[in-house]
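During the practical work, I worked with a single protein chain and the tokens that describe its fold, as given directly below.
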Amino acid sequence: MTLYVSGGNTIVSAFASGRYRVFGETLDIALGNCLDVFAREAGFKQRKGMPLGAAVEQSAVGGKTLISLPYVVKGMDLSLSGLLTAAKSLLHEGKYKLEDLCYSLQEHAFSMVTEVTERALAHTEKKELLLTGGVAANKRLQLMLSAVAEEHESKLNVVPREFAMDNGAMIAWTGALSYKHGCLTPINESHVNLRWRIDKVDVPWAK
């Protein structure tokens, strides 16, 4: 079972019958985008070695009060846009400490993805859980998923940060595997498909 959380994706998936099947996903914005937008709104600046999401994580460590925010899980999917809008509104009202808002934003967002991931684990009975994507570096998210994995007798694996970001080598390796296994596309038929979903791609090299 894989939880892929980044600026562009929030997907819970697992390999089955030749493809990666989606068991849950965001209905609107991705988790990484949610954190980044709030960080910019709060005035955080991206620095070398400190992405915007990491700045939110660092600030959240000092949070002590859990502020009530929208929590939207619909079946196996989740929605983060209402959570972001509410957090931004409270930020501009100025009634709460920034640390408490960062803490509350994280707790609500991470609880949502953790709930969906736990349901998928319970359904598939997978014995390994992989956390990947830019948000995978967040220690609080790792801790929450570790508890879920332990509850379901699964092992949590976290992709090292250097391999969880945008990665040209990863794309090239996937292309090499595709070629090796006969997944070929003539040049005149090749194009960029921004809506090409992970569950529409055959993966003959995976067992």
In short: The chain has a mean pLDDT of 94. The radius of gyration is 18 Å. The chain is about 45% helix and 15% strand.
